[in-house]
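ok new one. same drill as before - C-alpha cells go in, u give me an amino acid for every spot. 477 of them this time. try not to just spam alanines like last time pls lmao
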C-alpha cells in the first residue's frame, strides 16, 4: 500500500517534536501504537522512545540512536542519519495533539481497508462457519476499538458524574438504585441489581438456581410494565435470558407456574379444576405481554453472548441479563482450550466487561455450579455451607464478580448434619412441597453481606419472601 506523503509528513513532525520536546511523548503514548505509523521506520523510532520513557531514561536523538546501536533486530538502513535529520528539522516546539489524532484516524482507516479486502477474499467453510464469523467480528471490534484515549479523570470530572448520579436518585420515584429483585429483603441489601454489575448465583444441582433467576427475571419485567415509562432514547426496556440448559418452552412452563402459583407438571394440568384452567389461561396471557427476550441456543460461546447483546442494545434498553449457566459457555476457539480454568477465567472477565459496556450497561446474573467439595463437607458439623472457594473451575469468577450469592436448603436444626430437606408445608391434596432456602450473599463489593430466608414452592418453582422478622437476625453473618 502506497504511503500518503501528507500523513508521513505529520508522522515526521510528531517524531521531531518527541525528540526535541520529550514532554510531548506522554500524549503520543496515550493514543498511538508504533504500528499506527504508515512509515515503519518512524514506528520503530517511536517504539524506542516509548521504551526509553518506560525505563525512565532521557528521550532525545542521541539516546534513541544509542538504543538502536544496542538492538540490532530494530535497526534499519541509515537509522542514525534519519534520526539526526528529523531532529534538526524540528528545533522549535510544535503543537502535535491534532496531528496525533489524525495519524490514529488514518491508521484505523488503513486497517479497515485491509479488513474489507480480507472479507472480500474470505472463502466460507460451512463446517467452521460460526468460527469464521466470530473471527471476523473479533477483528472488526479490535479495529474500531483501537482508538486510545487518556483514561485518567480529574476529581472535578469524577465529582460531576457522581453528583449527576445522586441527582437521578433524588429525583427518582423509586427507592432503589437498580432493578428490583421483587424481594424486599434482597433489595434492601443490594439496593436492586445495579447497572454494570456481575452477580453470580451459585448452588449445587436441584436447589433452585434457575427457578430463583426466573423469579428475578419476571419481577424485573413486571416492574417495567408497571412503570410504563418512556425512555429518553425512545427505546423500550427489556430483560434478557440466555438458557444453555433448558429450551424456551420449558422456561415458559416454569414462568406460568411462578406467575400463576400453579403446579405445571402435565399430570397436574390434566386434572385442573375450572378455576385453575381460568388462572392458567390468564397467566399465559399476562406472560405474553412481558418484555422478556429468551435465547435458548445450547451451543453458545461468550462471544455469541456479547454479539447478541450488542445487537439487542441497538433496539432496546437492556435492564437485566440472566445467563443459565456460566460453566456451559465456551471461550473462543483455540484460546486456552487445554486449560478449562483459564477458559472460565476468560469467560468471567468478558462477562464483567459486557456488563460495563457503555451500550449494554446492565446487571448480569450468571448462574454457576458449585463443586462437590460442599457435599464432602456435609457430614462435618457447622462446615457444610457454601464457600467462595466452592465456585467450580475458577477462582477468577469470585474475583471478577461484584456480588457472589449461594442458595442452600436451610437444614432442620434438630437434625444435625442431616441432608433431609426442611419441609415447612406439605399438603398432599395439592401435592405441594415448600422448603426454606437460604439466599446467602457471600460477597458484595459495594455493600454488606447477609443471609436471607426465602420459601421455595418446588411445585410451582416460585420463591416467596419470608416475614421480615425471620430475616433480621440473619444479616452480616
Amino acid at each position: 500500500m502506497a504511503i500518503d506523503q501528507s500523513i508521513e509528513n505529520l508522522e515526521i513532525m510528531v517524531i521531531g517534536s518527541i525528540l526535541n520536546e520529550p514532554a510531548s511523548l506522554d500524549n503520543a503514548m496515550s493514543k498511538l501504537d508504533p504500528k499506527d505509523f504508515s512509515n515503519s521506520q518512524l514506528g520503530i523510532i517511536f517504539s524506542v522512545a516509548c521504551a526509553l520513557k518506560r525505563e525512565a531514561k532521557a528521550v532525545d536523538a542521541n539516546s534513541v540512536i544509542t538504543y538502536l546501536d544496542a538492538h540490532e533486530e530494530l535497526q534499519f538502513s541509515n537509522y542514525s542519519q534519519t534520526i539526526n535529520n528529523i531532529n534538526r528539522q524540528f528545533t522549535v516546539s510544535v503543537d502535535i495533539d491534532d496531528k496525533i489524532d489524525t495519524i490514529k484516524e488514518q491508521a484505523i482507516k488503513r486497517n479497515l481497508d485491509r479488513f474489507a479486502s480480507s472479507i472480500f477474499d474470505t472463502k466460507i467453510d460451512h463446517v467452521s462457519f460460526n468460527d469464521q464469523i466470530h473471527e471476523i467480528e473479533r477483528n472488526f471490534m479490535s479495529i474500531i476499538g483501537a482508538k486510545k484515549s487518556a483514561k485518567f479523570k480529574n476529581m472535578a470530572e469524577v465529582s460531576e458524574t457522581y453528583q449527576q448520579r445522586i441527582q437521578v436518585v433524588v429525583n427518582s420515584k423509586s427507592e432503589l438504585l437498580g432493578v428490583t429483585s421483587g424481594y424486599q429483603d434482597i433489595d434492601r441489601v443490594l439496593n436492586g441489581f445495579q447497572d454494570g454489575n456481575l452477580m453470580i448465583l451459585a448452588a449445587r444441582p436441584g436447589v433452585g438456581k434457575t427457578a430463583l433467576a426466573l423469579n428475578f427475571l419476571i419481577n424485573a419485567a413486571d416492574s417495567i410494565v408497571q412503570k410504563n415509562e418512556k425512555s429518553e432514547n425512545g427505546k423500550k426496556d427489556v430483560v434478557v435470558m440466555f438458557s444453555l440448559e433448558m429450551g424456551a418452552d420449558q422456561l415458559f412452563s416454569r414462568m406460568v407456574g411462578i406467575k400463576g402459583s400453579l403446579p405445571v407438571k402435565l399430570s397436574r394440568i390434566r386434572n385442573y379444576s375450572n378455576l385453575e384452567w381460568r388462572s392458567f389461561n390468564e397467566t399465559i396471557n399476562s406472560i405474553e405481554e412481558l418484555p422478556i427476550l429468551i435465547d435458548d441456543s445450547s451451543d453458545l460461546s461468550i462471544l455469541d453472548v456479547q454479539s447478541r447483546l450488542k445487537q439487542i442494545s441497538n433496539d432496546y434498553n437492556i435492564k437485566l441479563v440472566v445467563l443459565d449457566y456460566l460453566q456451559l459457555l465456551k471461550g473462543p476457539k483455540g484460546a486456552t482450550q487445554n486449560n478449562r480454568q483459564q477458559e472460565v477465567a476468560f469467560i468471567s472477565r468478558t462477562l464483567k466487561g459486557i456488563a460495563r459496556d457503555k451500550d449494554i450497561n446492565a446487571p448480569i446474573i450468571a448462574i454457576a455450579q458449585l463443586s462437590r467439595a460442599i457435599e464432602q463437607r456435609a457430614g462435618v458439623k457447622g462446615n457444610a455451607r457454601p464457600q467462595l472457594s466452592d465456585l467450580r473451575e475458577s477462582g477468577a469468577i469470585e474475583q471478577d464478580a461484584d456480588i457472589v450469592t449461594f442458595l442452600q436448603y436451610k437444614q432442620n436444626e434438630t437434625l444435625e448434619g442431616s441432608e433431609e430437606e426442611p419441609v415447612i408445608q406439605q399438603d398432599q391434596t395439592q401435592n405441594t412441597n415448600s422448603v426454606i432456602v437460604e439466599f446467602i450473599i457471600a460477597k458484595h463489593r459495594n455493600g454488606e453481606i447477609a443471609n436471607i430466608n426465602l420459601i421455595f414452592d418446588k411445585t410451582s418453582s416460585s420463591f416467596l419472601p419470608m416475614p421480615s422478622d425471620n430475616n433480621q437476625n440473619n444479616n452480616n453473618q
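Confidence is low (pLDDT under 50) at residues 413-420, 423-432. and btw The longest helix spans residues 97-121.
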